[in-house]
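Here is an idea for our session: we take a single protein and study its fold together. Start from the sequence, derive the backbone structure tokens from it, and show both lines together. Once you have written the record down, we can walk along the chain together:
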Amino acid sequence: MDAILSTNPDLPMDHAMQAEKPSRVTEMRQVLEQEILGGIIAPGERLDERALAERFGVSRTPVREVLSQLGSSGLVTIKPGAGASVLRMSAKQLVGMMEVLVELESLAASLAARRMGIAGRKRLLEVHEASRAAAEASDIEAYDNLNRELHELIYAGSRNEHLEHQAKLIRSRLRIYRQYPFQHTARPLKSYTEHDRFVKAILEGDGEAARRHMHDHMTTGGSIWVDMVVSMPPAGEYE
């Protein structure tokens, strides 16, 4: 606050407070977003306004704003009289989203093979090589982060903003149910081997091969998604 007032001496107090508010709201949203995506706050778990206000040392008004933003992003559901809770999807919804993601990923790989620029291809290869080291070291968290970056590089390389937005949105929603999907020690190496096929196809500009290998990667990894559905908390656990 002092920094705002000292750099803006003519700014009224109420305006200065308003200028500070967005940064605090953003900080709170990012913390809760990370906890939801990281599985610290589980699907279906309630988000109590009073408890959150006490935790962050704020009034309930900015908490409501944060929950509203998380609701708009699809991570939280808000029901009149029941309050807010982390989104909990049915098995049918999860399968439906996965089916769409498989096709989006396959299309993105095909387009990236034709459209990705030199800098993008260079970074794709760097991330792919770094993921091999993480897989060989069984560094699951590092591999998971590199895996996400690799797929997002392919989305960006497709040069289709609508595809990129939809793929990221679906992945973020599914991530609630699949924190570190490579927990079995053999899975990172298997994933890397599958990645190697479509990364090479993209770098060689072979769109059809890139599409095929990405589709195979997304569908042969189906056991991850079965595990994801099975591990869902029972309905009513947080009700």
